[in-house]
Amino acid sequence: MGVPLRRRSGRSVYRESAPVAKVAGVVESAWTGWVGRSRPLRVFPDGCADLVWDGRGLAVVTTVRGVLRHELPSAEWTVGLRLRCGAGGAVLGLPMTDLAAEATPLRDLWAGRARRAESKLAECVTPAAARSVLEELVAERLQDVELDGLSIAAARALRSPGARTDRVAAELGVSERGLRRHLWHEVGVGPKELQRVLRFHRFLNRVEDVARDRSSLAGVAADVGYADQSHLGRECRRLSGASPGALVRSWTGRNVPD
Fold it and tell me: What is the pLDDT of residues 104-135, one digit of tens each?
């Protein structure tokens, strides 16, 4: 579940923080969103899965295969833990290919453990307290699972714009087929598709630079690993359903040519 294009928009605010040490190996960040009002949210793919408490239920949200329209409730705040790319299958206990690109109730996966966590979360009056419950939930889960360190390392290596899947596999001591098998289980896509998602996520992290005239779409396209601006446009439409210029316009509110 990716971060918003703008971390502050109207009454909505999104903030990240570092997770506690005992879950840092599998949790990339903890986050809090002050929603403001009920509304649909575009969630762009980033290769990660998030555990999300929205005041009504605890769910896992995954979007690696494309943009997701997620309905935000009118709760005062929501909290979540973003699992590291490559850790989802082990932590959740099933191949990530088995999860649809949507919010799946965690009770469908963890049964009584998830229901007990929901009861505790319902009693939390602050985001900090809710984050602690989620971190304890993941820490408890880690006592029962064996992590796939290879997939986490592979996802980290594939973030590099110049990464080649054959070299990443060789460096990790597996065949390309073995690398593909690990990533299908832990992320939900193979290495080539994951590279496309991670490259698109690098572009999303640079949308503000274009919006503030610190760079151009062509410049950002080259920086993050696209062949040219047209390549960026095709991939952006494929993974988000919108053009690069449209995403910049959604950030800034002014016209930006594609």
Answer: 999 999 999 999 999 999 999 999 999 999 99
pLDDT in tens, 129-166: 999 999 999 999 999 998 889 999 999 999 998 899 99
User: Alpha-carbon distance 18 to 49, whole Å?
Assistant: 16
| C-alpha to C-alpha distance for 257 and 202, rounded to whole angstroms | 20
Contacts of 4 (CB under 8 A, 6+ apart): 12, 14, 41
Would you list the domain boundaries of the chain? 8-142, 149-252
Helix segments in the chain, DSSP class H: 88-92, 107-122, 127-142, 149-158, 165-172, 176-186, 191-204, 207-211, 217-224, 229-240, 244-252
Architecture of domain 149-252: Orthogonal Bundle (1.10)
Distance CA(100)–CA(92), nearest Å, equals 13
- By CB neighbour count within 10 A (0-12 exposed, 13-18 middle, 19+ buried), where does 166 fall? exposed
Indicate the Cα dihedral angle 191, 194, 196, 200, nearest 10°. -160
What residues have CB less than 8 Å from 183, skipping those under 6 apart? 86, 151, 154, 155, 189, 190, 191, 194
- The residue-averaged pLDDT of 13-24 equals 92
CATH code for residues 8-142: 2.60.40
The burial of 133, by beta-carbon neighbours within 10 Å (0-12 exposed, 13-18 middle, 19 or more buried), is given as: buried
